[in-house]
Amino acid sequence: MKRATALWMTLWLIPGAAIAQDWKAYQYPDAGFAVQLPVAPVVQKGTFTTPGGVSLPMTSYVARQDGIVYTLKVIDFSSINPDGTKTIAETEKSFGASGTVTVAIDARVNREHGRELSVNGADGSRSAVAIFFANRHLYLLVGQSLPPDAIARSGDAIRFQESLQFIGANGGFGGFGRFGRFGGRFGGGFNPQAVAACSGKAAGAAVQLDTPRGPVPATCTLIARPNAAPNPPPAH
Description:
Strand content: 35-45%
Number of helices: 4
Low-confidence stretches: 1-20, 172-190
CATH superfamily of the domain at 31-190: Mog1/PsbP, alpha/beta/alpha sandwich
Radius of gyration: 17 Å
Strand order of the largest sheet: 3-4-5-9-8-7-6
Largest sheet: 7 strands, antiparallel
Order of helices and strands: HEEEEEHEEEEHEHEEE
Mean pLDDT: 77
Number of strands: 13
CATH topology of the domain at 31-190: Protein Transport Mog1p, Chain A
CATH class of the domain at 31-190: Alpha Beta
Distance between the termini: 47 Å
Structural class: alpha+beta
Helix content: 10-25%
């Protein structure tokens, strides 16, 4: 486990290396999000069936490179006006049927709250997952690193997960970013403190991060991330 963790940490610490040089930000204002990817995604239209049997419009953004499948599905729930929290919970539950959820935590991107998961698939794959419900749309992001080298490739899958931002009506790059007014993950990129806090620790270990608003508890999911957003600074 320590060797695998060290490898994941190395992937996070070398954003300028060859594995990260070709990554670009892809923005989709009409769909309300932006992500980073190593190659341009293919956009596909389809349908999504809810647990209640309702078919809804879905747009999928799919990219593949070096044994990783990057997928972000945007499902339009506006015709049935569902409860967002329940929709996120139902979506999270579905991952337990196809693998083992090793980490499941609350997450925040811009002004939106959701869930982030780490999933070990029964087929030997490793997935970094983000689930959000914003503006009556479900956003389901999955970075799936495939066997036989799933562990070694997990860093890029997590980078995809961490890159998700909501734009336009769903937040905008000028909004709160992840975890309040830090912009991105504590400064718009990979946080060295988070990497150091989890060095040598297994996923799921409890640690603490120092932030401009004080210390916050965090969980190691290959890097440390706060369990909840720090309180925003007072309005002026």
